[in-house]
């Protein structure tokens, strides 16, 4: 009996010591309920709208001192969203004899991405693809294809609000025309 009593007493000592050790450990902090998500106008007011800018682009074509064309484009662009403009016509291109034609897009395509930098300037990613029918003497014969000239630039610019810059000047090898691209960025309120 003494052996049973001592085994029970030993078990009680072990259980008592275990309980004392558990009592000495710091209690885990109680889990705090998560704050409910804000709903309504207050949540909308704290959300910052993306920065929006107006991007004005002018593509000019000159030959010597004579201005042949000056084409303005204006886009509204928001930070984090690509803005695209597509403008043009489908031009029939004769495909040999027999009156068969294939249509080709001729016109302007502009893609613009805007990012607001930490110092308040705007980084613009611009891709401009412009094509047009060449002026001058028409091709000889009814089945002769038209001459289509093209201009393409893919660039990154950093500008301040209201700043304008000429970002590209190029000369057409065939006609000798000079193509000038200018851009202005203006913050929208």
How many domains? The number is: 1
Choose one word for the global shape: elongated
State the helical fraction: 10-25%
The mean pLDDT is 80
Structural class: alpha+beta
Using DSSP, what is the number of strands?
8
Distance between the termini: 92 Å
Radius of gyration: 36 Å
> What is the topology, as strand order, of the major beta sheet?
2-1-8-7
Number of helices: 2
Q: What composes the largest sheet?
A: 4 strands, antiparallel
> Topology as H/E string?
HHEEEEEEEE
Strand content: over 45%
Walk me through the structure.
Helices cover 15% and strands 50% of the residues. A four-stranded antiparallel beta sheet has the order 2-1-8-7, with no helix packed on it. Strands 3-4-5-6 form a four-stranded antiparallel beta sheet, with no helix packed on it. It has helices at 2-24, 41-46; strands at 52-63, 66-78, 83-94, 101-116, 122-133, 148-159, 164-171, 178-187. The chain has 189 residues and is an alpha+beta fold. It has one domain (49-187). The termini are far apart. A hairpin with a 6-residue loop joins strand 3 and strand 4 (101-116).
Topology:
Blueprint: H1 2-24, H2 41-46, E1 52-63, E2 66-78, E3 83-94, E4 101-116, E5 122-133, E6 148-159, E7 164-171, E8 178-187
């Amino acid at each position: 009996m003494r052996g049973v009593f001592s085994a029970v007493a030993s078990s009680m000592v072990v259980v008592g010591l275990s309980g004392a050790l558990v009592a000495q450990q710091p209690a885990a902090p109680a889990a705090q309920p998560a704050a409910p998500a804000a709903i309504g106008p207050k949540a909308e007011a704290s959300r910052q709208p993306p920065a929006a800018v107006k991007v004005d682009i002018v593509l000019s074509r000159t030959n010597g001192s004579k201005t042949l064309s000056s084409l303005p484009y204006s886009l509204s662009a928001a930070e984090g969203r690509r803005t695209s403009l597509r403008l043009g016509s489908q031009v029939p291109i004769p495909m040999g004899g027999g009156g068969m034609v294939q249509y080709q897009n001729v016109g302007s395509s502009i893609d613009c991405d805007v990012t607001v930098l930490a110092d308040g300037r705007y980084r613009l990613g611009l891709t401009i693809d412009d094509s047009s029918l060449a002026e001058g003497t028409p091709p000889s014969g009814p089945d002769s294809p038209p001459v289509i000239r093209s201009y393409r630039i893919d660039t990154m610019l950093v500008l301040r609000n209201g700043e304008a810059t000429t970002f590209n000047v190029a000369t057409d090898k065939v006609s000798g025309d000079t193509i000038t691209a200018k851009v202005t960025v203006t913050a929208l309120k």
